């Protein structure tokens, strides 16, 4: 019976396992239970959701799903594959030559740099992409944290009475309204505007591009740096300019490190790089906290080398209640909320699986 089921090869990632659970109802019950728990606060009936989506998958389900973690495993499992889902693994001519049954390659993302799209066209293999909602939410969250720092919202929330403002260190002294406006009646200093400020994005990938789109809407000057420069058309599309890392650090009011998690990026932003930033700059990160050296970060905050920092992921999760960063008033910390709500991923997989089903049926 398994030979009659379509073979789907999926790059193993914590989120792509959702596709495995939908397409293969025989998947390990422990994995199914783990995801039901992970999604419960947004989707209390994960099993029902899987069943409903499976019914919309047409001839793609039930499938024989093979999860792979490397190029070698991909090549070993691709011969009778009908659908291939990848995030970072490469799909080249040799892979396509070995996959005679392949009808569609799904990129779990929007950028196809790891897929030879020309070779796919020659073979009649459809390449599908996905603008992931979680990436959009990460960019939104970056700006939420940026606005908290720029407008001091974490400090000012609810501080609208004279008593509460005074308790926060802002005793109210009324303005002479006969002659002057009444804005910021708490006389709160240190506010900043995003408009006309400079944002430096380290890594113009999937999330970095979403950040750039929103920065343009705020009227920010957008710089970026990465190992390989984007095309002129892409730079125009995202209203951004390529600069050296040194220039990005020197010129940016807001620094957004958005690089992959890898051994080479661990501690990327350390004492040396932090010594080059503007003293009034802030770092805002929805990337892995390990990209920033913790000791160097605290040193820069305490020494005035940084005006502030916002982190959505942390060096230890959950954080300890005595974490030094929790006791700094120029630090914003959130509990890994960037990609939420979970419906982002669920809607992505609904689009992905129904789209692939159409290609398999064609």
- The rounded distance between the terminal residues' Cα atoms is 23 Å
Radius of gyration (CA) equals 24 Å
What is the overall pLDDT average?
Answer: 95
Q: Give a short account of the largest sheet.
A: 7 strands, parallel
H/E topology pattern: EHHHEHEHEHEHHHEHEHEHEHEHEEH
Helical stretch tally: 15
User: What ranges have pLDDT less than 50 throughout 5 or more consecutive residues?
Assistant: none
* CATH class identity of the largest domain: Alpha Beta
> How many E-type strands?
12
What's this entry about, in short?
The chain is α/β, with parallel strands linked by helices and 362 residues long. It has two domains: 2-130, 3-Layer(aba) Sandwich (Rossmann fold); 135-152 and 190-333, 3-Layer(aba) Sandwich (Rossmann fold).
Walk me through what this model shows.
By secondary structure, the protein is an alpha/beta fold. The chain has two domains: 2-130, NAD(P)-binding Rossmann-like Domain (Rossmann fold); 135-152 and 190-333, NAD(P)-binding Rossmann-like Domain (Rossmann fold), CATH 3.40.50.720. The chain contains 15 helices and twelve strands. The chain has helices spanning 17-23, 29-39, 46-55, 71-77, 93-98, 117-123, 133-151, 153-156, 162-167, 206-217, 232-237, 245-251, 271-274, 294-302, 343-361; strands spanning 7-11, 64-68, 81-86, 104-107, 126-128, 198-202, 221-225, 240-242, 254-257, 282-285, 308-311, 331-333. A seven-stranded parallel sheet has the order 8-7-6-9-10-11-12, with helices on both faces. Strands 2-1-3-4-5 form a five-stranded parallel sheet, with helices on both faces. Helix 14 links the parallel strand 10 (282-285) and strand 11. It starts with 6 loop residues before the first strand and ends with a helix. The relative contact order is 0.13.
């Amino acid at each position: 019976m398994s030979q009659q089921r379509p073979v789907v090869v999926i790059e193993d990632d914590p989120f792509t396992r959702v596709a495995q659970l939908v397409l293969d109802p025989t998947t390990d019950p422990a994995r199914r239970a783990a995801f039901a728990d992970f999604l419960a606060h947004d989707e209390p009936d994960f099993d029902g959701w899987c069943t409903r989506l499976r019914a919309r998958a047409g001839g793609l389900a039930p499938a024989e799903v093979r999860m792979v973690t490397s190029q070698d495993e991909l090549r070993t499992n691709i011969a009778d594959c009908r659908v291939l889902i990848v995030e970072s693994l490469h799909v080249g001519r040799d892979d396509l030559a070995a996959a005679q049954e392949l009808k569609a390659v799904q990129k779990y993302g929007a950028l196809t740099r790891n897929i030879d799209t020309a070779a796919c066209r020659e073979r009649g293999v459809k390449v599908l992409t996905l603008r992931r909602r979680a990436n959009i939410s990460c960019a939104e969250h970056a700006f939420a944290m940026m606005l908290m720092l720029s407008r001091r919202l974490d400090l000012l929330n609810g501080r609208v009475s004279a008593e509460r403002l005074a308790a926060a260190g802002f005793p109210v002294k009324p303005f002479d309204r006969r002659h002057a406006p009444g804005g910021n009646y708490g006389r709160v200093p240190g506010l900043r505007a995003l408009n006309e400020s400079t944002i430096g994005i380290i890594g113009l990938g999937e999330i970095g591009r979403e950040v750039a789109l929103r920065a343009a809407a705020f009227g920010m000057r957008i710089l970026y740096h990465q190992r390989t420069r984007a095309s002129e058309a892409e730079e125009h599309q995202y209203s951004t300019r390529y600069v050296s890392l040194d220039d990005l650090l020197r010129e940016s009011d807001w620094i957004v490190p958005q690089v992959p998690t890898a051994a080479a990026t661990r501690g990327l932003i350390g004492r040396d790089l932090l010594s080059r930033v503007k003293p009034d700059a802030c770092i805002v990160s929805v990337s892995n906290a390990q990209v920033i050296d913790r000791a160097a970060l605290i040193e820069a905050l305490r020494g005035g080398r940084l005006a502030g920092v916002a982190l959505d992921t942390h060096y230890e999760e959950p954080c300890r209640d005595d974490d030094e960063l929790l006791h700094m008033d120029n630090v914003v910390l959130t509990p890994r909320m960037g990609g939420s709500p979970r419906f982002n991923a669920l809607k992505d997989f609904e689009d992905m699986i129904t789209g692939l089903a159409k290609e398999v049926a064609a």
